[in-house]
Amino acid sequence: MKIQQQINSGAYISDGFINRWQRLIKDTVIPYQYNVLNDRAEGAEKSHVIANFMNAANALRGEDIGDGFYGMVFQDSDAAKWLEAAAFSLVSYPDQELEKTVDEVIDLIADAQDEDGYLNTYFTIKDRDKRWQNLMEGHELYCSGHMMEAACAYYEATGKDKLLKVMERNAEHIYDIFITQKHEGYPGHPEVELALMKMYRLTGNRHCFELAEHFINTRGVDPKFFEKEAKKRDWTVWGNDATNHHYAQNFAPIKQQNDAVGHSVRAVYLYTGAADLASENGDVELLKACRRLWESITQRRMYITGGIGSTLIGEAFSVDYDLPNDTAYNETCASIGLMFFASRMLENEVNGEYADVMERAFYNTVLAGVQLDGKKFFYCNPLEIIPGISGIAATHWHTKPQRPGWYSCACCPPNAARLISSFGKYAYGENADTAYCHLYAAGEVSFANGLELTCETEYPYGFTVNYVIKSGAKRLAVRIPAWSREYSIDRNGKKLSVLPKKGYVYVDVTAGDKLTLTLDSDPHYVYASTKVPELTGCTAVWRGPLVYCFEGSDNGDILPVSLKRGGRLVVSDTPDDDLDGAYKITAEAVRAVDDSLLYSDTPLAEEPCEAVAIPYYTWGNRGENQMRVWMSEIR
Amino acid sequence: MKIQQQINSGAYISDGFINRWQRLIKDTVIPYQYNVLNDRAEGAEKSHVIANFMNAANALRGEDIGDGFYGMVFQDSDAAKWLEAAAFSLVSYPDQELEKTVDEVIDLIADAQDEDGYLNTYFTIKDRDKRWQNLMEGHELYCSGHMMEAACAYYEATGKDKLLKVMERNAEHIYDIFITQKHEGYPGHPEVELALMKMYRLTGNRHCFELAEHFINTRGVDPKFFEKEAKKRDWTVWGNDATNHHYAQNFAPIKQQNDAVGHSVRAVYLYTGAADLASENGDVELLKACRRLWESITQRRMYITGGIGSTLIGEAFSVDYDLPNDTAYNETCASIGLMFFASRMLENEVNGEYADVMERAFYNTVLAGVQLDGKKFFYCNPLEIIPGISGIAATHWHTKPQRPGWYSCACCPPNAARLISSFGKYAYGENADTAYCHLYAAGEVSFANGLELTCETEYPYGFTVNYVIKSGAKRLAVRIPAWSREYSIDRNGKKLSVLPKKGYVYVDVTAGDKLTLTLDSDPHYVYASTKVPELTGCTAVWRGPLVYCFEGSDNGDILPVSLKRGGRLVVSDTPDDDLDGAYKITAEAVRAVDDSLLYSDTPLAEEPCEAVAIPYYTWGNRGENQMRVWMSEIR
Predict the structure, then answer these.
(1) CATH of the domain at B460
(2) What positions of B carry a catalytic annotation?
(3) Which of chain B's residues have a Cβ under 8 Å away from the Cβ of A541?
(4) Count: domains in chain A
(5) B565 and B482: one domain?
(6) d(CA A305, nearest CA chain B) in Å
(7) Distance, CA of A531 to CA of A523 (rounded, Å)
(8) pLDDT, tens digit, for every residue of B73-117?
(9) Burial label, A180 (beta-carbon count in 10 A; 0-12, 13-18, 19+)
(10) Quick one: which of A341, B386, B548, B633 has the most CB atoms within 10 Å?
């Protein structure tokens, strides 16, 4: 039996780790980004997003367009992601003032919609005649997709449907172009597919479903579509290579694809839409393709941090096992997209491996994307930083040792904001007789199937999770992560002997029950397959969902440090205030004494030492210094 | 007291390892390349070099230019390097037919020289009005430089001066343009500087010296020269970035430069010319700069194989200690240029470190550039090859698992040919009272200072070197390589107790004396500074000048293999026929048994094994397979 994975507005994260992050998004990121959109944020590059909508509205009215359009061709999506983050935030943290601001922005957006339902400030301001001529680069469908997601989120959060209506009209316009008028194209940057599925699920509008199905099944049937399209026009946005079919995942129909390739964000957005569609229309071939692509990513092309897209060139997946630490691109958005994909796979099949990856990506790469104060953001998430090389060498300019501010291509910060704000959507799932707990977060949940529960936990630094059933009587499915070597589960103080099925234990619960899950709190060393050339002879440390790393701030020069196989790992007694309450781990290690020769036939002397690790998501918060996840190991 | 490093036509390599390589060049590479130049070589890309010279001559005569010019703007230099290789080869291996062919090519070249001494087929055929307008990209001085080197070599080999006269006229033309007419430019691709120094030393022509001095001292005084130059014209050759002052080493006057940067071949050609000039004009500041640049390369930016220029981006030096194995660019030409630079530094200061680096570059990267059958060539020389990643991943397309044939940009093959053919020039040096033996090669040498000797050795696989003095009485300076942990030196059977000074022992010799040098024949493990992030936890193996590597052909999958610290290294008893007589080395090792999980919290089981290493220069001669120089070490 399938599950509806996303609880709509049913999860309130009221305490603990996730609550802290959501409050950071609410208190710092959302207001800051609103200032960015209005070009009022200090230190941020010019955005012009709000002005673009106002100018587009003027263009439609035939009035003066002022300073016209500014920004990337997909600039509108910044507004959409901000709206979505704000909407999600309003679910757990009602805020009249924020809601009023959102309403105003929605009014602006509505004004910028063309009579026929078209909505895109770039083309509306710059050239209405160029609509739908450059699907490869134009991002019209991408921007629509993000705005549809925002519309759904805001409706779910507030019941207000103005933006939803705008986007339904927009969807009808797209339907007219691609279905009625038979435009042969498909999206350059996938995103609208998953958004259309959300629209369909929320509104029941069959046109949305048909469009999603059309785009997913059409893609790659004619791999040369973008080439043909490019030949028909005399303009380009930024000179993309239409012949690079891997970049755009259009080298073959998705049902025939085996390897995750190309631009990693595009890839996982596409796979998300495909998995979404498969769970709706039951297309077995499509689901099999999704599973192959999932395995391609998670078994051969993913970092231990849940980072994906290892190369800067095309911000793309590389080949199997090519996972360099120091030059990893690992865009924050790609790991967010991987969470989307995992969550949709979980809808199709209850299997802990999806939630395991979702969690690994969230607690490591996604959170690492945001500075602990919420003010700066990583777009790239490498697993090694060496000042002097990182951010400087020609091959390393993208691996910054410190989080930069808001870029002009501001995809990652608002994406992280909407993801963190909607954590509850990934944490829970349900169907008629079962409530699923995929991830652990302190708060209250009301399942649509009638079950209500409270979750108490200090996770990811505490490894006990208490579920108190407030009302209803259902089966509760609780995930046992693969990383947890042992676990126990008690109901009302009595130990249950249930074996997990595909990563979940199933327990019948009724109002008043208290379920206590205890997970493995030990830190462990981790090893990679020898198929990964970069990682031979290396080890890393993880504890629970958190991958750890070693920074210069705690250790001085980390390059001469090697960890001892089987050496004691000690978790600190107290949380670290400089790292927002993170717990450090100390490992037995040795330190080589460098003799300063570049090459020598004498091994360097080594002396015992302790090496201190911090959670990967907290790196780069104490000034520029070295960082390594994978350390050389002595054994 | 300075030494004149290059013996002109005085060294005959008559036996052993170097002789085999020189015969390969003579018997295979030089004839093959002649066919390439004439577009008669199977499997090679079109060259058109000979046709270019004929068509240029026709253009000058006002006759039909046939199929015009084809190839790179620096296509002429292929002819020059071939001529130079042939000339060097003729010294040790007289060949009337080859000499006749060379004379014919020289006649063609002479015909292609313009009345005013200008010589360049690209501009002569395509547009004579565009001469000297694009020093950044045009390679006019670069081509002249290579042809000057060829002219010197051929005169030294045969006493024939036709090409030398052509190039003296060409030098006078350049003098007229840059000195008399005060053209403000300097070479885009340095090369002519070192060539002019050769011309000056051979002919005594002061204009050549003045020009070399002018170009070296002018470079970078106006770092924006190429930008200004580019603004003045409405054409480009291939759109080089004139603002990239590091690429072209013109960000500052060379005397103010501290780090080896930019395109690595350009860099070392420039430094060679500079060191040459400094040894001639005694410019202490210039020599100090050369020393700083030498240290920058050899102490912080050089691979253990003598490879330099670690990044594909700009075929350039990266920052300090950024020495990736798998993506190393390490152009064969760059290591050849490093040998040039080392040889000129040695002229300024007798110090074994220069010869050590020269030898390391030669026996590893330069020789690796040539397939053992002399038919294919590496342009890039990485230290790790993993089929499936190497040559395929977007960041690895340049690191081919197999030597490709002759490219259209055929810089490396003829460069290797001329270098190997002129080994004797690097092996010996002299001044009035001392004869220097920098490198070891079986053969006869006549020093200009009157000493004549015979050298017998099986080096680099034998570690005894016998010098028999045939006539004369001088001081003999014999290099003791830094890699040799111990050594002994006997004169006429009696052990001498002389301590080396800066890497050389000095012994008085007279006709009839026999000197026997015995070097360390043990293989050793090598380690890198911990400052090199790529190499922490790794070890490599060398024996004498040869760096070893591990190939799949001998070991199966090498990724799970780790070497044991201090483990026994055993040199094979017999040479390997498949590897042209190389001796393999067997190392104690362990092999991990991969459990196929990408990440796991359990260390992989390991079992003892033997790992077989082969000399790095022999890799890639037995089909596509894995290769690693640096291996993970257990300790």
Answers:
(1) 2.60.40
(2) 315, 411
(3) none
(4) 2
(5) no
(6) 11
(7) 25
(8) 999 999 999 999 999 999 889 999 999 999 999 999 999 999 999
(9) exposed
(10) A341
